[in-house]
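Fill-in record for DUF6440 domain-containing protein.
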Amino acid sequence: MFSKDSEKNKGSKKRFEEILSENGVANGNRIIVDRETGIHYLFSWSGYAGGITPLLDSNGKPVIKPNNE
């Protein structure tokens, strides 16, 4: 079951790309892009707690990176 999936993805790129990382002593933020959809996500953490959410533009729509960029 798992071997088929891992063999399928062996030569392919990773689905998520980190484009920004801001780290403190025990906290930080990262912006991650889903390469398949182009949607940007903000991952933020402090200590042992954290969360992830899609980044939104001023109109409340997800920030999307076009596939050709």
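KEY FINDING: Strands lie at 16-23, 27-34, 40-46, 49-54.
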